[in-house]
Amino acid sequence: MSGDMRKSLLLHGGVLVALFTLQFVLPAYHHGNLARIMVLASYAAGYNLLFGYTGLLSLGHALFFAAGLYGMGLAMSQFGAGTGLALGGGVFLGALIGGLVAVLALRTEGVAFMIVTLMFAQAGYLTILYFGAYTRGDEGFVIAQADRVFLGQDLSDPRNRYFFAFTICCVSFVMCLSVVKSQFGKVLVAIRENEERARMLGYDVAKYKLVAVVLSATLSALSGAAYGLLFGYVGASFASVQYSIFPLLWVLLGGAGTVLGPLVGTAFMFYLIDLSSGLTTAYMLIAGVVLVCLTLFAPQGLLGELRRRFWRWLP
Amino acid sequence: MTKSKTVPATGARPTRRDALKTLALGGAAAATVPLWARYAGAQTSEPIKVGFQVHRTGIGAAYGRWYDRTTSAAAALINEQGGINGRPLEIVSEDDGTDPKRGAEVVEKFATQHNCDIGFGTLFSHVVIGSAPRAGELKLPYFVVSEGHHVASGMLNRYTLQPGITDVKSQVQAMAPFVADNLGKKVTMIFPDFAFGHDHRDYFTAAIEAQGGEVLEHIAIPPTETSFTKYFPKIPRDTEVIYHVMVGPAVLTFVKELGEFFGPQRPEMFGFIDSLEAVDIGSPGLEFLDGTYFWEGNPRYAQDDQSDYDAFFRERVGVDANGASISDPKDVSTYAHMFGCWETLHVVKAGMESAGYQGPKDRAALIEAVEAMTDLPHSNAHPQGAKIFNGKTHQVFGHQYITKVVDGKLLLVHTTSIEDTFYPDEVDYTTQTL
Fold it and tell me: Which of B269, B193, B203 has its CA nearest to residue B235?
């Protein structure tokens, strides 16, 4: 094992150990926050696979998050599926929609790809509203506490919720690290750096990009399904454009193309809003100023900047 | 062995300045007696903390601003009257961004960080539905002021209550007799194509059919729509009444284009004021509404037979006879809804006093005390009108008001009975464990 690999495993393993341990020491409020952050960080990690490593900027990832959320929720409310089946259904729906979107949207690139993904997400949002008889439209619906039991564990219980969120976070971590360290991941980075050169070297760029979109969508859908299960609510606002912008913001803040960046960015943004809202009603102004400063002084994000200055081995 | 006290040779005699200081301090302390003496009977002087989930940003900001003012006014009044169980009321506000995700986070913050006794104040339905599961899990009594049917429908949980404002189902069905008897029986409905609009579509259609009327056409407008002209040709020619509820900033365009479409030959029109809350009814472009009818939860304009309670409420909140801020006549209130905050806080006060509420361990007793309430008489605590609370469904029922636009003002033409708003129970929350 190379020195860099050892450092990487130590760092990422250490972060997971720290996340696991924190549940025993955090006060109730931050305990709940961290559970939420870990689930949303998985969403950001899915986004990072596509944006940070493949160089495809999507503005429609809320579609995949919502596919997981509604796939899980509707499987329960309309078909009476059990928790495990509903969770799997949500993830499958996200992967399926990811594949469909990829087939169509990857015919475009650059700004056109952004617009096409945005339009798909908007179509998804309006579809949820259109089928209001089943989805309850913009109001959404509640997943009853009795239905939120997985492997005999009540997911509305704070400890179980935290552990489930931690498991989702571990899955996304391992998946991202595996992809990044694999031959496949190196090709994605090659596509990001110079798509023409990757193609000239004989790689089927279209196929790689399609798999990247599906992987990214799957991880986003897993996060969406888990979010609905853990917090008991399925709503159309999670399919709105705002929730397509969030993962972009989290990844940019944390550091695009770093495995830890999405977690750091999600936590940073969460507490930036939470703490500044305690100081002033004009908290969005504070958040805006901080984000502008970060963009100016750490354009590669927090971990991107660390990698540039100190930890060049950071994956 | 004890130390003997020695008196310094100098400084033992008070100077005139010292005496004046002492008198001033004593006077100041005496002046504050009324402030603290009224809480002296309480076992603790710790405030009762009410977590106020306020829409400061997002689509609900206009409502949030007035909900905030009304809540502050109600809390000030309650504190002037001695607080709750001898303890002062403290409002802890957090912006939920009119977003269900942030709403749930704010509820968690109330329960686990601010250590609030209850959560309160939410208006928009999706924020209520997104937040209520967390309130139930955290066993935080969650008093919403939403007018959504979600509470009484049984979708939520025993910790969520709506004792200060009626729900959309009862509001809509109570309108049907007036519409059928006075405006016409052939109705075309225009509504936004999302859950709030669908509630109107479903409840009013059933209610007007029960009155012998019919809905000729349902015209659902997508929420992203900015121009409405293309929808108007769908209105059947034999329509006698247009029922409209268009929430959102496009309402001015909607009214203007509807006026251009019909000209002076229009059918009768009936709408829900939700579209025009915080909007001056005299705004340019709204002239077409003259002679049309509106549902109002509470009449925005002070009427000729205004009750003393309404006058008191306006004075305390800072609203003039036209429903605008006394400090800025252009700052129109959300008068049809905001009374709900005032009344809900008074229900909380009555519930806590009835339960002998001392702290979070008494939250279950508070829920049971509110569930036991029935009649809420017309009073300063309930200035909108008398109400009946249904402890099983956690929903209050009350009078509804129908006003007509006359010379740019909304004049009251009909008040429904409370019984007009009743419908069969759809849930019994009291069977759920606390």
Answer: B269
Which of B101, B108, B125 comes nearest A29 by C-beta? B108
- A137·B99 Cβ contact <8 A: no
Closest CA–CA distance from residue A315 to any residue of chain B (Å):
31
Q: How many residues in total does chain B contain?
A: 434
For residue B434, list chain A residues with Cβ-Cβ distance below 8 A. Answer: none
Contact B383, B310 (CB under 8 A): yes
pTM over 0.80: yes
The terminus-to-terminus CA distance of chain B in angstroms comes to 61
Q: How far apart are CA A216 and CA A47, in angstroms?
A: 6
B206 interfacial to chain A (CB closer than 8 Å)? no
Domain ranges (residues) in chain B? 48-166+337-398, 169-296+403-412
CB neighbour class for B306 (10 Å; exposed up to 12, middle 13-18, buried from 19) = middle
Per-residue pLDDT 10s for chain B (434 aa) are 334 333 333 334 445 555 555 545 555 544 444 444 445 445 567 999 999 999 998 888 888 999 999 999 999 999 999 999 999 999 999 999 999 999 999 999 999 999 999 999 888 999 999 999 999 999 999 999 998 899 999 999 999 999 999 999 999 999 999 999 999 999 999 998 888 888 899 999 999 999 999 999 999 988 778 889 999 999 999 999 999 987 666 778 888 888 889 888 899 999 999 888 888 888 888 888 899 999 999 999 999 999 999 999 999 999 999 999 999 999 999 999 999 999 999 999 999 999 999 999 999 999 999 999 999 999 999 999 999 999 999 999 999 999 999 988 999 999 999 999 999 999 999 999 98
Does B240 contact chain A (CB < 8 Å)? Answer: no
With the C-alpha atoms ordered B57, B60, B65, B69, is the resulting torsion angle positive or negative? negative
Q: Which residues contact B252 (CB under 8 A, 6 or more apart)?
A: B279, B283, B285, B286
C-alpha atoms less than 13 angstroms from C-alpha of B397 in its C-beta half-sphere: 24
Interface test with B, best of A122, A136, A138 (most B CBs within 10 A): A138
Would the CB atoms of A137 and B195 count as touching at under 8 Å? yes
Kindly give, in sequence order, each residue whose CB lies less than 8 Å from that of residue B74, ignoring residues fewer than 6 positions away.
B316, B341, B342, B345, B346
Q: Does domain B169-296+403-412 have CATH number 3.40.50.2300?
A: yes
DSSP state at residue B261: H
Query: CA A76, A79, A85 angle in degrees (round to 5)?
Result: 55
Put simply, the answer to whether B95 touches A281 (Cβ < 8 Å) is yes
Pick the CATH number of B48-166+337-398 from 3.40.50.2300, 3.90.950.10, 3.10.310.20, 3.90.370.10: 3.40.50.2300
Q: Contact A139/B57, CB-based, under 8 Å?
A: no
> 3-class DSSP state for residue B285?
coil
Q: Give CA–CA dist B91/B75, Å, rounded.
A: 7
A106 at the B interface (CB within 8 A)? no
State how beta strands B142-143 and B160-161 pair.
parallel
Could you give the ipTM of this predicted complex? Answer: 0.87
Do the domains B48-166+337-398 and B169-296+403-412 sit in the same CATH topology, yes or no? yes
Question: In 3-state terms, what secondary structure has residue A286?
Answer: helix
